[in-house]
Write a structure and sequence with these properties.
mainly beta; three-stranded antiparallel β-sheet
């Protein structure tokens, strides 16, 4: 009986935990985030002027119109192609989990830019980390960063799948023109 009274007393002292309230619905008239561009018939067109054809079968998610991350394209096996627009930057940003071990600048065809393109490789710091291949170019005061993020074992297939898409990249130039791929 004593155990029963102690249990009853403790049960009565416990505070009842209520579940958290559901998230508030957006207020009427709150504008949705405007996308950075559109995907139409397998092609990405950014409002800032960059365009490219997407790899067949991959899914695209536009970033916000005012965000640095403009587009994320997802392929098989966790492979991802990220497109960033960063003011005054044509060099790789520090990344957690990998170290930039190689960079080169020149007139690469993969990301056309009148003043050249920087290419770089980031190797994972752990065996389960992703390799990152990056292409970086400036168009006016805006830096375009195109990064292919490849989980272990996917680097070769990812490059094969994205090679044609990267060849269709067009960077915006001052005056509204676009840069076509550089000559070999």
């Amino acid at each position: 009986m004593t155990v029963g009274l102690v249990t009853l007393a403790l049960t009565g002292c416990l505070r009842r935990v209520e579940p958290p309230p559901p998230p508030a619905a957006p207020e009427a008239g709150t504008p949705a985030v405007e996308p950075a561009g559109t995907v139409t018939e397998g092609a990405w067109n950014d409002v800032l002027g960059l365009s490219m054809t997407l790899p067949p079968g991959w899914t695209a998610r536009p970033g916000g119109r005012h965000d640095a991350l403009r587009l994320v394209v997802r392929g098989p096996f966790g492979v991802r192609l990220d497109v960033w627009a960063i003011p005054n930057s044509d060099t790789p940003r520090p990344r957690a989990g990998c170290a930039w071990d190689w960079q080169d600048a020149g007139l690469y065809r993969s990301l056309p830019a009148p003043q050249g393109t920087r290419v770089a490789r980031c190797v994972p710091t752990t065996p389960s980390g992703a390799h990152v291949l990056g292409w970086y170019a400036r168009a006016g005061s805006l830096g375009w960063h195109v990064e292919l993020v490849c989980p272990p074992g996917t680097l070769g297939p990812a490059l094969d799948a994205t090679r044609e898409s990267l060849a269709t990249l067009r960077l915006p130039l001052p005056g509204g023109d676009t840069a076509a791929p550089n000559a070999p």
